[in-house]
Amino acid sequence: MKKSDYIRNEALHTTRHAYPEKGFVAYNCYSIHGGHGNIPQQMIEDSLTAHGLGEDYYTLLDGYGTPKFPRYAIGEWGFSFLNLNGTYAGSGHQMHGSGWVVHSPKTDEEAVEIMRTWLYKQYTDEKHQLEEGEHGVAAINGHTLFQHYAAEWGFDQIGSEIGENTGMHQAHMAFTRGAGRQYGKLTIMDFSNWNAGTIGTWETKPSWPQGSSTGGHSLSLLKRAYVMSYMGGASDFLFEVACLLSFIGEEAVDENGILLLSPYGKQVKELLAFTADHRDIGIAYTPIGLVIDHYRGWATCAVLEDGAGYRHDRALGCFPNTPGDDMVNALFYLLYPGASPFNWHDYFHQAPEQMAQVNNAYGDVFDYITHKASQAVLDSYPVLVLCGDIDLTAEAAQRYIAYVQKGGTLLCNTAYLRFFADYQAAYDAGAQTIPDGEGTVIVYGPDYSVEALDGLLKEQIKKHVPFTLSDEVQYLVNVKDGSLILTLINNEGVTKVCSEPPVIDESKAKTITVTYTGDEPVAQVKELYYGEPVDVDGNAVTVTVGPGDVQVLEFVFD
Description:
Layout: H1 10-13, E1 25-28, H2 41-51, H3 77-83, H4 99-102, H5 108-122, E2 138-142, H6 147-152, E3 157-163, H7 169-183, E4 186-192, E5 194-195, E6 198-200, E7 211-212, H8 219-231, E8 236-239, H9 242-245, H10 263-277, E9 283-284, E10 288-292, E11 298-299, E12 302-303, E13 310-311, E14 314-315, H11 323-335, E15 366-370, H12 375-379, E16 383-386, H13 394-405, E17 409-413, H14 421-428, E18 433-436, E19 439-444, H15 453-464, E20 467-469, E21 474-480, E22 483-489, E23 494-495, E24 503-504, E25 510-516, E26 522-527, E27 536-537, E28 540-545, E29 550-557
Helix pairs in contact: 8-10
């Protein structure tokens, strides 16, 4: 078995790395607003090195850059633009002229240009030196799904902050991965341990008044988010302010003066050990591309001009929803049932983290790309789904026709037939499955409805993903020469709200029978995360994934 049996364009889908000699790198965030909490800097550096917590202490996001990437990095920029005019971002940088309270765009294109102009103006000063025509090393979204914009504007690395009060981790991963592939960029996922105004820290003298050992997020969510990010194709991962969260305090040291690990630090060390032991995980396999309009970027929370407060269902955070926008919302809830884009509704009281990452029937086999994607990018996906308030010029429509004719499958809602005269004519004549060249168009309706997509997506997943699962969990597939890796993540059974300790429900363990449905004979199956033996029964294995836990299964073929 070869990677090319599943991956149409390895050059586009292979993960890019800032340091190819190292590959995936996990960083510890350097500072909190330029300081180091209550622990001396040198003690932190020595302890990080001694415990092997991350490969680089100075991160791409510390505001100072690295010798290889000297320009400034921008964190939480989408949220900052939409919400923080005149106030300070989490990075400590004051936001000026932000959001739709200041600006009043008339069109989508104008709104995107306003954000681009603001981004360069906001981060141009003596310290940051981000000038028009230049770019920073990294642009991290806070709550928004604007990854494609930063990629188009020239940033070296794009990503998303998860954890925090960010819901739908899977959507953030799919947008980040899709934008990285569409624009050939490095990607990064940033886990913040803040949750509803609290943070989990085990310091004996907390650096924040909101910090406590029961604050923030569960270690289970940190683990699941990291494994999803690594196996899902992120270039790098950022443990936000882990330089402080990983330790108990300056008085808790061993005989060599090395800081003792906190429970958070022990979890980070376990995750890094998994990464170090399994550097070659192949290519994250996502056979289905979800195509949205480039200029209808998704803001999961924004302060609206009319003073209506936070809303998470408006494109770009400013325009009233169209039927196409409602379709994207409905698609999110179809793919990630029970998740929420932003847990703002009970921010200071609940913010249940179980809305962040969820089990589903579809797996993480999707990338979000935009309608501006090149022909090569479109052709790299066996299946494309047009969705949202998409608007295709005749030239753009021709790319999708060429995609089908070269062997692609296009799932086309009736709302988009206006862009494809021949497909409209065939549909009017009674055809719902329309062959064209070597490929197929499958038409479904009604306009902007996702109801029929449930069955259509499951049919395409069955065709292109060579595994069936006996129960629902979150799953990811990676392809190597000679093997397939199936990651199972059970997001049920761990409840964590605000500053309360997590509650674990052991009854939510999942016993899953995984059946390989491909043509290759299975030689063996190895569990990679824990290294436990796995019994193979023909082409099937049965494993138990505990509440809030993971299993990583490598199917090796003769």
